[in-house]
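User: Can you fold this complex?
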Amino acid sequence: MSLLVDIAILVIVAVVSAYTVRHYRFYWDRTFGVQEKASQSFVGAYAPSVSIVCPMKNEENVAPRLLDSLVNMDYPKDNGRYEVIAVDDNSVDKTSEIADEYARKYPFVKAVHRSSSPILSKPAALNSGLTFANNEIVLFFDADYIPPRDCVKKLVAPFTDPLVAGVMGRVVPVNTPEALVCRVLELERAAGYQVDQQARHNLGLVPQYGGTVGGFRRSFLTSQNGFDAYHLAEDTDITYRAFLSGWKICYVNGAECYEEVVSQIHRRGVQIRRWGIGHNYCLFDHWLRTLKSPFLTSWSKTDGIMLLGVYFMPFVQLAGWILGIYSYLFQPPFWSPLLFALFLTLAYNVVGNLALFSEIGSASLLDRRNRSVWLLPLMLPIVLYYVLIGSRSFIDSLSAHLTTRRKKRKGTAISQESNLRRRSP
Amino acid sequence: MMEYLVLLGVFAMMFFLSFIPGYLEYRLPRDPGPLHIDLSKTVEPRSEAIHFRMSSESLAKNQGWTPAPSANMPQWISGGVTYQREFKGDKGSFNVLRIDQDLTIPAGTSIESAIIVQGNLVSEHDCSFMERVYVRGQCQIGRSNRLNSIASGSDMTIGEESEIFGFADSDGDVRIGKGCIVRGLVGSGGKITLEGSCEVKKLNGRVIVVTKSGD
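Assistant: Here's the predicted assembly.
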């Protein structure tokens, strides 16, 4: 038993160390390395035809703001080169009328209503929008986002490279003065985009499409039959489908867009849990294919698998703490306390997809937000919360995955959705 | 037992100390608002040059110019209506000359100040312009000149074998001579003509014509 515990702790320390090294590599690259700007020298000179799909479900408060931003976008609108598709996803408020009003007012705005669709999910709404998209590039914006006027020009520039399937822009919280939680989430976001995504792009690894403020070639989406309508992390899923088909995804740090972040910690917990479940499904679906992919370099495979594992890490952390405390109290060889201390130190840097501490510090300095970094210690209780939520989401997704496999073996048709609906909040 | 309690107390104190700066930032925030994004900003390939032209026009109209003492001015400028002032840019401060009439710069002249010419500009061969040049009227740069960057409100001609380290931008037509090197954008509101084997990083104009050499 004691040997098993020791081996388990050593494995956990090794995994956590790998993530720590990864974080510091990203931090170093972003802070001191040469920055790759994703064809941004073509901004303004390259203007392919673009469709913008905006899924909206009961968004009457924010829909006009987004649609105003999109109709005023600095982009050539001649000959159908620019179209906005507002997808009303079974809204019960005035979203539907707002979409219709904009469609009446502007010839390049279309309103799509999903009133009797069998699948109620964001990716299904995106697919509905996609069927009405006529243009070469399809970009996606959620309703609570506020893109600046230059955003689309910046996002389409990387498509000058024929191997680029998708792009992702930078998301910046707009409601930071609202609550302390928003300010802490701003730190997380800054590290995740300004440092983590940019470094992955610089190093030719796996920048991730984040579900909004980004998009794809329509030909790529069509070849993949659109998004997986049953997936809770359709963005991560499509990212991996692109990389595994030999395409690239670019991150454009300059294509900044405001978003509203949640202002209550329990709502953040719900988000993390939902993303965790979806992301872990991607882990189960794609880890082996990533490992075997002929299109990815060994570093890309390593990063790809580590990215898939980010919502598995809270579970690893929790297991590490429990085993570490057990080992420390009940079977302390001389090195147990040292190992546990090492684990705690490393664990401080690695939880979920949060590029913590060093990356947050770097991002704050790059954004010239020197005082925001004073809030960094507040990440500690939030990390503890994430470890608990993330562990629970891993157990839920693993159990749902195993149920699906068992039913598949028995020949029963079952969707991820029906499994997850029972489990997800 | 007492030692452990003291140690625990010290540990707890140090732990909670780390939250004090965060508490201060929360109560008296200096970075409270969202990270600034200019929502109305638009992208133009010629934005740097357009911005330079607008800021030069604005600078020319501003107060703070003093008549340049003719005793300290070089031969080619003396007698002209000339003003000067210090300007603080991103890379430190430098001197700016404002010439309120047409200007002709003799061969081999080296100019360390930025210049704003309110009329037309003609430079002869082998001149060097260490700082940016803005010309409101027409601009004719001679052979083998070396320039930082140049913008004009009307037609611009860059003489052969010249080198420009930044942009060359004009609201009118632009003609780039044979063997020129432009390391930034050549922008024009009209036609750009490239003669022979020039080397240009980027072009942005309504019409772009490449000729053999001086056709």
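Residues 240 and 286 of chain A are 7 Å apart (CA to CA). The interface with chain B takes residues 41, 43-45, 69, 74, 146, 148-150, 153-154, 172-177, 180, 183, 186, 190, 256-258, 367, 369-372, 374-378 of chain A (CB under 8 Å).
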